[in-house]
Design brief:
four-stranded antiparallel sheet; single chain; globular; mainly beta; 46% strand; 92 residues; five-stranded mixed sheet
């Protein structure tokens, strides 16, 4: 599936163009959000993946994305005000 989304913060009413998004696929993938804070990853196998968002004015934020099987596109909007960090014993 293709993974599409936007990086934003609802609490600050802000989007993040130029954010670096890393996805823990094998091999790992990385992209940068465009001028409207949108990003894409192509041909991602189904599964649960760690994602890391790097922003110029903030520390990196780590969360999870579920890529469901049977869908051609997974919407993975990354609202950094709502991302819970994964537990240390989570398996990926």
């Amino acid at each position: 599936a293709d993974v599409y989304g936007q990086v934003y913060d609802t609490l600050r009413d802000k989007t993040y163009p130029g954010a670096r998004i890393w996805m823990g696929t094998t091999p790992a993938r990385e992209t940068e959000s465009d001028e409207e804070a949108r990003f894409w990853f192509r041909d991602v196998p189904s599964g649960v993946y760690l994602v890391r968002i790097s922003l110029p004015e903030r520390d990196s934020i780590t969360g999870r994305v579920l890529v469901a099987s049977g869908l051609s596109v997974t919407i993975a909007n990354l609202d950094i005000s709502k991302i819970d960090p994964p537990e240390e014993d989570d398996e990926y």
